[in-house]
Amino acid sequence: MGGTGGCAAPPAGGPALTWLGHSSVLVEVGGARVLADPVLRQRVGALRRAVPATATAGAVRTLVDDPVDVVLLSHLHHDHCDLPTLRRLRPRLLVVPPGARSWLGRNGFDAVELAPGCELEVADGVHVTAVPAEHLGRREPWGPTASSVGHLVESAAASVWLAGDTGLFAGMAGLAGLGRRGVVDLAAVPVWGWGPNLGPGHLDPDRAAEAVEAVGARVAVPVHWGTYHPAGLSFTMRHQLRTPGDRFAAAVAARGAPVRAEVLAVGATTRLPAGGSSR
User: What is the DSSP string of 50-79?
Assistant: First the structure.
């Protein structure tokens, strides 16, 4: 696995991405810190975290002591929107998909809704654009139905695609064009889920490789794998917990596209060179 372990601050340079497990990623770009889909507890409903808390303990303490510039939510599913985690983090700015704001408001959070194709400046010179995703957004069992989105996080010199949770869809080839720069330097793409099987609206390693090629990502980090499992299924799911990242890297290589897969350990960071990524 690549990347820098232990959540240590990466050296100065281009955009950085730290994988905190599942779909929780911290992006540093243009001097801003952007946190996506934070779910940082050991237990979330019936799910249990397979990764020791020590893997991300330092990063979590930093996020609590020094809140990030913005927290992005891709949708309201429990494994992407965890209210206890949000209460602990106290986000300065919370950006959510259409249909999510009123429910979050009833739970004590001020939020800004951002629809696909719309952008918001979240720090000086750093913009977030919501982009389409194909994924059902209902919060089970009795919660609201909100949209599911991904995000482009961009400075003048770099762009990062945070896919959230999605299946393949026809518009992926034009996704980068919704942003300001028209390219994707670094991507965090889901390659599995939290259960032994995947339903519709998800990517497996092969489909994820197809997705990053369609989007034109230069470097892609697999996420949404290896972190959570239903209680009692850690042994049954040992294959699903351990292999999706490497399977994604193999699928990217097999396609021969100009995409480099970077498989991170939970808590590790990758940073691209200043001025973009190398092929």
Answer: -S-GGGTHHHHHHHHHS--SEEE-S---TT
Exposure class string for 217-232: b at 16+ Cβ within 10 A, else e: bbbbbbbbbbbbbeee
Higher pLDDT, 254 or 138: 254
- The CA distance from 159 to 155, in Å, is 6
pLDDT in tens, 209-259: 999 999 999 999 999 999 999 999 999 999 999 999 999 999 999 999 999
Whole-angstrom Cα distance, residue 123 to residue 70?
9
DSSP, collapsed to helix, strand or coil, labels residue 106 as helix
Interior angle at CA 151, CA 193 and CA 208, nearest 5: 40
| This prediction's pTM | 0.93
Whole-angstrom Cα distance, residue 256 to residue 218?
12
